[in-house]
Amino acid sequence: MNVQEMIQRSREMAANRTPAESLAFLQRANILDQNGHYKEEFFSAETVAASRAKGSKTLVRACVNVQQ
Predict the structure, then answer these.
(1) HSE of 20 in the Cβ direction (CA atoms, 13 Å)?
(2) Which 8-state DSSP code applies to residue 21?
(3) What pTM does this model have?
(4) Rounded to an integer, what distance in angstroms lies between the CA atom of residue 11 and that of residue 51?
(5) Model confidence pLDDT, tens digit, residues 16-59
(6) β-sheet bridge partners, residue 32
(7) How far is CA 65 from CA 1, 11, 31, 57, in A?
(8) How far apart are CA 28 and CA 26, in angstroms?
(9) Residue 55 exposure: Cα atoms within 13 Å on the Cβ side
């Protein structure tokens, strides 16, 4: 499997994740804490505070853009 195929597969998998699956994925990747907010160890105090100020869980949808 070449790199382009791996990127395409990753995009497809991300597009098919439910919000709960996305949350679990981001928690395993140490992006979000158990409450669904950005982790203090890896994000600025400003970003973490903004995440917590919303009063709701943060759900990040990301996409890798590749020039072809």
Answers:
(1) 0
(2) H
(3) 0.65
(4) 25
(5) 888 888 889 989 999 988 888 889 999 999 988 888 887 655 65
(6) 38
(7) 19, 10, 20, 25
(8) 5
(9) 0
